[in-house]
Amino acid sequence: MTPSQIRDRTPTLESVPAYLDNAASIPMRPEAVEAMLPFLTERYGNPSGAHAVSREARKAVDEARDTVAHCLGARPAEIVFTGSGTEADNLAIIGAHAVRPGPTVCSAIEHHAVLHACDALGDNRLAPVGADGVVDLDRLADLLDPSVSVVSVMLANNEVGTIEPLADVAPLVRERAPEAVLHTDAVQAFSWLDVADAAASADLVAVSAHKFGGPKGVGALVVRQGVTVRPIIHGGGQERDRRSGTHNVAGIVAMAAAMRATVEQREATVARVRELRDRLAEGLLATVPGCTETGDRASKIAGNCHVSFEGVESESLLVLLDAAGVYASAGSACASGAVDPSHVLAAMGLSRAQAIGSLRLSLGPGTTDADVDLALAVIPPAVERLRAS
Amino acid sequence: MTRVLAAMSGGVDSSVAAALLVEQGHEVVGVTLRLWDNDTDAGCCSVAEIDDARRVAHVLGIDHLVWTFVDEFDAQVVAPYVAAHANGLTPNPCIECNRHLKFGRLLRRARQLGFDAVATGHHARVVDGRLLRGADPLKDQSYVLYVLGQDELRRCRFPVGPMTKAEVRAKAAALGLPTADKPDSQDVCFVTTSGGREALLASRIPLHPGRVIDTAGAEVGRVDALELVTVGQRRGLGTGGGAKRYAISVDPTAGTVVVGEAGDLLAGSVELTQLCWVNEPVEGPVQAQTSAHADAVDATLEGATVAFAEPQRRVAPGQSVVLYRGDEVLGGGIATPMLTR
């Protein structure tokens, strides 16, 4: 098979019938693509230089920083550009821990970027969540003491979409672990919540561009004034010595453009997608016997529909959905592309069987009525077929 | 044209198996199974192997899936393997993996998803409902497939069975498959080369020291872990120099290993349990193969007893004994412990 034949087989965005994996990534927003293109070609300067070409790039990064800061409710000097959301989480946790070592505390449903970073530091305390996927504040309080170095509670969960009560977490941390740094992973939240407000009480806030229409390979960490993180990447001292490495100018500019567009449209998008999501969830609950919804929809981000089908293995279901043009996910994808048993569902007390039968349908700004129609047409018979065989 | 699910381990045999099916015009989807997510340096199930399988799938222009059967593998292969060792047996985990995972779990799921067959890279052939040795005598893997019955045979394909290993590699090279030069895998995939069986067993069960006694009952040495002794083994029995001595039986209850001379190791027969047949049950003259790489020897099967034409080295209990007539696999069973006088 020649490369061109292979290319012909590769689905293009136009041919995607129902992309319901928006929590994994969404297509880039046109504004972001347009904004980044000049920096891939004629405006190629390294922003750290001292001549006109560099100055032009520097100006673009500065302007992007202003936008990102504004969208995240921070000052420009508080923004550190990173190479991903994962890097932002790692810089937050490992970087803050290095300044003042001690035990870390995080919720049991954190993304692996937080969970594994905390684990790597050796003394991590897991705060349990309730059956609704919301962190148990009493149990969290019990884990806090003055020795704690970093507390990390995500703003919205990537698998089940629950919104975590960060505003209630913060006072507990300030009271019981006054010297601890409070970090929040807002990677899944940004498309749906006003992060500037929702994360106002956190010292550190991580976001990732490709989740809201920017390119992959760029993220940002808010480091509030007065909070110090030690760099985890050493080199030329960019980002005020907090993250070395030549700026990804095009990516940063595109992230800012995507952020601005997301914030401008957020209210309308949330309202529209919430209706679609509700129709999808209610449609599945009504038409598929043995279908349960995970978490309380009222306390979830608008784009998340998470269900579990009794007596079905989602690994099989995904194959049928894939063939029918419904692109979804189960559990959290691991590096090999396999589906790992979800630590999130386990923490919520779902049985292994429920976890194995779980399906995440995540909607995004591009999701349409037709996508929901297709999913509702395809999923019930697919579930029935798997149960019958 | 049939829809075939090609199990792709990331090795050259299963890569070429998938390629041949594509060439034959079948609708092929590749799948790599994640069976083991603990430490391994044997390479199996690692991200690198999955990457290799996916790259081959890309070259072939077929879709590639990754499925996680870690729970089932642990319950149906690793746990019984450990339990067998705890009981002084020497199991064949690859056979149990074929029985329960590749031609059990995977075949069922393939059928559920509308596939007509599952293909693997095993060196064996299926001809008219008969299971035959692979064409390459050095690479023949029919021994680990004796657990397949007619139901399974009808729905599995072994595309490289008629080929020699050299032909498989040549084919892979001709197609430009990235796995063409990969070395063959040899070892049990969940046992690390560095830690060996001992590390795996020690992580799951207590290992017990044992007394090594001769056939008259006199203590002649000690071993650190009875669970690691295999009948037929000569080294590591703590018996020092002198005449060569072999483990001829292991009794975990009594905490003893009985050793004897080469002659004591010989046995005229072996009793099988869990007999299963590819076709109809068979009696009478057969050839029996008592380990993956042994030669098949003449024997007579009566009931569950395999009587060798010439005395043979004892079969380590727990090992599969596979029964052949010529190149045809008839079936087989698992060797039971023999009484030592």
Outline:
The complex is a heterodimer of chains A (389) and B (341). With 389 residues, chain A is an alpha/beta fold.
Distance between the termini of chain B: 59 Å
Based on CA atoms alone, the radius of gyration of chain B comes out at: 21 Å
Helix-strand pattern of chain A, N to C? HEHHEHEHEHEHEHEEHHEEHEEEHHEH
Q: What fold name goes in the CATH topology slot of the largest domain in chain A?
A: Aspartate Aminotransferase, domain 2
Written account of the structure:
- The complex is a heterodimer of chains A (389) and B (341).
- Chain A is of the alpha/beta class.
- Helices cover 43% and strands 13% of the residues of chain A.
- Chain A has two domains: 3-27 and 266-388, Aspartate Aminotransferase, domain 1; 30-261, Aspartate Aminotransferase, domain 2.
- Chain A has 14 helices and 14 strands.
- Chain A has a seven-stranded mixed β-sheet, sandwiched between helices.
- Chain B has 341 residues and is α/β, with parallel strands linked by helices.
- Chain B has three domains: 3-175, 3-Layer(aba) Sandwich (Rossmann fold); 206-260, SH3 type barrels; 265-335, Translation factors (Elongation Factor Tu (Ef-tu), domain 3, Beta Barrel), CATH 2.40.30.
- Chain B is 26% helix and 29% strand.
- Chain B has eight helices and 17 strands.
- Chain B has helices at 12-23, 47-60, 70-86, 93-112, 150-154, 165-175, 196-202, 262-265, and strands spanning 3-7, 27-34, 63-68, 117-119, 124-127, 130-133, 156-157, 210-214, 219-223, 246-251, 256-260, 266-277, 284-289, 297-302, 305-313, 320-325, 328-335.
- Chain B has a six-stranded antiparallel β-barrel with strand order 12-15-14-13-16-17. In chain B, strands 3-2-1-4-7 form a five-stranded parallel β-sheet, sandwiched between helices.
- In chain B, strand 14 (297-302) and strand 15 form a beta hairpin.
- In chain B, helix 1 runs parallel beside helix 2.
- The radius of gyration of chain B is 21 Å and the shape is globular.
- The A-B interface holds A 1, 5-6, 9, 313, 315-316, 319-320, 335-341, 352, 386, 389 and B 32, 34, 47, 50-51, 54, 58-61, 65-68, 71, 109, 111-113.
